[in-house]
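Dear Dr. H.,

I hope your travels went smoothly. While you were away I took the liberty of generating a structure for the chain from your last submission, since the lab meeting agenda had it listed for discussion. I wanted you to have the full record in hand beforehand rather than looking at slides cold. The sequence, exactly as received, is reproduced here:
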Amino acid sequence: MGNNKKREDVKYDKGNLLTVEITDIGNDGEGIGKIDGYTLFIKDAVIGDVVSAKIMKAKKNYAYAHLEEVITPSVDRVEAKCPVARACGGCQTQNMSYEKELEFKQRKVRNNIVRLGGFDESFVDSIMEPIIGMDEPWRYRNKAQFPIGKDKNGRIIAGFYAGRTHSIIPVTDCLIGTAENKDILSVIISHMEKNNIEPYDETSGKGLMRHVLIRKGFTSGQIMVCLVLNYKGISKNKKFAGINADGENTAIEYISGQKELVTRLSQIKGMTSISVSINTDKTNVIMGTEIHTIWGNDTISDTLCGLEFDISPLSFYQVNPVQCEKLYGQAIEYAGLTGEETVWDLYCGIGTITLSMAKKAGHVYGVEIIPDAIEDAKKNALRNGLTNADFFCGKAEEVLPDFYANGRLEEKDKHALQSEYNISESALHPDVIVVDPPRKGCDQACLDTMLKMSPDRIVYVSCDSATLARDLRILADGGYELKAIRPCDMFGHTVHVETVVLLTK
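The corresponding predicted structure, in token form, is as follows:
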């Protein structure tokens, strides 16, 4: 055989302009239309639109096409509020009415559980509750990470990456973020221009400013700014640094004109913490592990579900606190707590679900891989006067099986068991296990151990209904029955959706 490959037999070619009616929507929010059985995937098209689209990549049975013109708009099409909504990779559904977006998310969760999980359609429909929508789907994000770079004219810009690229679309006032972001970025960019501070260049590895992380406590009003720097000088931990009367770290200058920058940022209402994160690696990971506070506090605080939480730059904390209370409220309702139960919370972060459940349970155990998050969780338990919560640092898929195996082996020595793990024997067979895993879902070892521990109820909180469906099938095959499913919209104007599921033995 030679090196020449036979051209794939395709119905249409790149550059062909086609007119098509959009009849469906994909998992990533793209419109789907068909011409004589040939499928077109068209970003920014809405069900009911008749559009003109140019083929960008053609395959034998389908193609990806670019929306050129909306010939006849759908009744569900709306004008996107953000001027760069189509270019920016952050929002995918701004041109769809919010009511239709909620329908899409409800259907997405339902279809994944049916198709990927292999559950009966009528059964899923009988236990699925209506999606919990947002009262106000704008200005809901309490956290944003803005990459810093340059445009084609060499001007410093902040914004978000275009979809599937590392090309920055200039955005300083994201409409799903807080209003303060614009003022903060304006100060930082003008300071960079004044002091000839270069943004980081991914290709060369040169330049100082990589990202700006901004967080706001919606209840407290406290704001945190963390500058992610490609800083290669000598750095010092705050406890060894010189801190002046204004709370400013004067021991080292991480950025030219640092004192002036801190002064300007500190004048923004609510500013509580200014820090730097050192990241010199050539990586797509945004935050470095080395954090130095240069002004104010190390953390900001916020209130969620009636509990106060300290939040550091590296803390995982739900980005939509208003909806988060609704999500956690649903999880607690499904857990059926009466004040006596033993609960495990896997992938617990800084303890938001753990401590919310601790208020209504007998004892709760949290597991999280990030050491800083576990330390935050322990401090948050003390801060809220909750003594019935213990936390373990490690991977859920390692901590839980190890605990179960060791606990089973040492059950005859109850004192050693409780001394080593600071737990009761009932933790081996808890009443409730709560899981809130990352997008990839639960590890097989974790699921296997959950089945061995045989809790009365499992409450699964998911941010990806595809991996949720996979894991639900494993749990169902292991002896559990789905009792209730409820989506919750945490990320308005995007295709992402959270889901809470109750399973019982």
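Two observations you may find useful: The first strand starts at residue 17 and ends at 25. Confidence is low (pLDDT under 50) at residues 1-6, 238-242, 408-422.

With kind regards,
E. W.
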